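pasting for ref. prot 1 ->
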Amino acid sequence: MAAEATPRINARYLETFTNSTVRILGRVTSLRGESATVDANGSIQVHLNRDAHLTLNNAVEIIGKVQPDLSVKVFQAMDFGSNIDFNAVEAVVDATHRYKEIFYNAD
């Protein structure tokens, strides 16, 4: 059985991937209990699980499911620290969708 594809997205692709599992790399801009806001070329509201330990202003990679309200339910979150080149991140997201046949099934 093949593993489920988790395409890299940013805020602009949320609507396209509703009810899908995705990867998002962004900067934590706010923390409020069991939720947070992540800036990934736009604000994304994320619903944290008990294992998510985020740090304000650090980069975080989230694997989660896009909800109908365009928030993301976090399955896994990894702190990437503060030394991230977000221009490179955006280039990877762009390549993921420009060459989607390599990264995910668009059907």
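and prot 2 ->
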Amino acid sequence: MSNDNSSSLKAYVDSATGAVQSALGSLTGSTADKAQGEQTRTDAAASHEASHTVGKFGPIAVSPSGGVSQDDPARAEGSWNQTVGSGKEMLGNLIGSQDLKNQGIQQNAAGKGQEAQGQLSDLGNGMGDRVQGALGAGLAGLTGDKEGQAKYQDLHDDGKAKLRSAQKDIEKEAQ
């Protein structure tokens, strides 16, 4: 599942390599080396951006490396409670019911907490899966266990999808 073109680490290394190549081109007067270095840096920036994207289809997230994850159910439940709470608050305002308005405010706040709890769960689980997958794939690669390596790479990629999904939603809410 892994796609080396969407690795954050590889993007950082390529960016540094491009900077060095460009600087050497400038020092030696080689416009070809300088241009190649700049192209490597541009490609690295695009790769880094790609490694942080995720496709969202409702509660399902897909990363560029092929990882797939499903959002923690608390995220959807929290979002639903925020929507219903906002509706109650609006209706309470409309009909002049302070009790209904207060219920809506409370339900909305509870929903925000539920959603945040689900996002934190996905962040933690995603990071854990990525680390376990990377270490497991590395060890399996050292021992020549291709099947184990693929299994751990899938775990890493699924963890990346879970992590990027939570990050995307958190960033969207912060705007």
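Confidence is low (pLDDT under 50) at residues 1-6.
Residues 112 and 140 are 41 Å apart (CA to CA).
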